Amino acid sequence: MPQISQLLEVYGSQFFWLLLVIGIIYFGIAKNMVPKISKTVDDRQKRITDDLAAAQVARDRADKIEEDYRVTINDARADAVGKVASAKAEAAKKNDAAVKRADTAIGKKADEADAALKAATATALTEIEAVAAEAAKDIVATVSGAKVTAAAAKKAVKAAF
Amino acid sequence: MATEGKIDPMHQFEVQPIIEGFELFGQQINFTNSALWMLIVLGLIYVFMIGGMKRELVPGRWQIMVEGVVGFVDNIIATSIGPAGKKYTPWVFTLFMFILFANLLGMMPLGIIPGIHPFTVTSQFTITGLLAAISFSIVLIVGFYKHKLKFFSLFIPHGTPLPMIPLIFMVELLSFLVRPFSLALRLFVAMIAGHILIKVFANFVIQSIDAGGASLFVALLSIIFIAFVSALELLVCAIQAYVFALLTSLYINDAENLH
Question: Using one digit for the tens of pLDDT, what is the confidence trace for B152-171?
Fold first, then answer.
């Protein structure tokens, strides 16, 4: 086994070169480059965590904005519905009042017309009575020759009516 | 390499000097093939890591791979040591990456390119031993620095009956002291075994083809076997790197958070 047979003649150079190489790896690479690589990894991890946190915050804000918007929209809608209802009620009230006013006006006119009609009927009746009494007196005078007084004729006509 | 059909499956583990070096503390420090492959491992790790340094917010495939590996090591530390383990991340990362890349590079079929002899750095127990020794030293230093002599209470589990304490203490101490060896040998043995197995069966293939005739069937069988063992070895490469890093962080956890 060369490792044993050569041991005494090569261990010095083996140790020397190994220590040299190990030293360079230790101080040049492990102490110098590795921390930078670790830092890169840590920085990336930190950045990912930060970005995720920022995204969460932005998302929460978006949710809040949406919520606000929804509340505003609902308020506005409720407001609009209320306004429409009140406008409707107002219009109905106005309508009713107008109808009532027209109704009373029409009733008054009808009453007046009724009264005028009654008056006209009464006038006509009295005139017809007078004419009938006159005619009855004339007819009696012509037929029987008897003289009837206007009052008696009127009385008789009234009785006949 | 293979001289006259004789293939030595151990040859691949030989450390050979490429450039004569200098002397340090009475030891000849040559630039060896082992050193070369360690530097290639270093280069590959650097290239791999630099691909993940674009630091884009939306990572590409390469960046995801690099970030995945870094996250994987961070995760080992976080689950076995906890928040106090952050300061050990560089060492565990170094261990994991070096072992993983060395293991995988050793498994690459680079030997088919003439002149290139792949060398698996982690199949040398000088290498795995030093890695384990460094890990164990961290455990000892941290343990005794943080807890002083109280660190010895690590060897007495909670609820041990009083008369049993000396015995349990010895057993626990022994198992503690074996840790660096088990750590080093586990990786070393896993790597060397797979490589020897593949080389031995590759040997079978060549010898069967040389023999010709019915033994071609053996060659075919051996190739299929090599394919499966290679797949298994790729898994072992990753698992061993993971185990080494995980055990190191568990041992450090003992020192960091005593009981």
Answer: 877 777 777 788 888 888 88
Tabulate helix, strand, coil % of chain A (nearest 5): 95, 0, 5
Distance CA B117, CA B121 (A): 12
What digits encode the pLDDT tens for the residues A27-60?
Answer: 988 888 888 888 888 888 999 999 999 999 999 9
Question: Is the Cβ pair A28, B46 closer than 8 Å?
Answer: yes
| Shortest alpha-carbon distance between residue B23 and chain A (Å) | 9
Q: Which residue has the higher pLDDT, B111 or A121?
A: A121
Judge contact between B93 and B244, C-beta under 8 A: no
SS3 B107: helix
CB contact under 8 A, B27 and A12: yes
Q: Do B52 and A44 touch (CB under 8 A)?
A: no
CB contact under 8 A, B71 and A40: no
Average pLDDT, chain A: 88
Alpha-carbon torsion (B244, A42, B138, B49), positive or negative? positive
d(CA B85, CA A81): 71
- Specify which residues B28 forms β-bridges with: B23
Side-chain-facing half-sphere of A70: CA atoms under 13 Å: 6
B78 touches chain A (CB under 8 A): no
What ipTM does this complex have?
Answer: 0.83
Task: Tell me whether residues B13 and A7 touch, CB distance under 8 A.
Answer: no
Q: Does B131 touch chain A (CB under 8 A)?
A: yes
C-alpha A45/C-alpha A33 separation (Å) is 19
On whether any CB of chain B is under 8 Å from the CB of A128, the answer is no
Which pair of structure tokens corresponds to residue A151?
């009052």
Domain span at residue A103 reads 2-160
List beta partners, residue B245: none
Distance from CA of B8 to the nearest CA of A (A): 11
Domain count, chain A: 1
Distance CA B254, CA A142 (A): 167
Using CA atoms, how far apart are residues A15 and B29, in angstroms rounded to an integer?
Answer: 9
CB atoms within 10 A of CB A132: 18
Pairs of residues, one from chain A and one from chain B, whose beta carbons lie less than 8 Å apart: 125
Phi first, then psi, for residue B120 (nearest 5°) are -90, 110
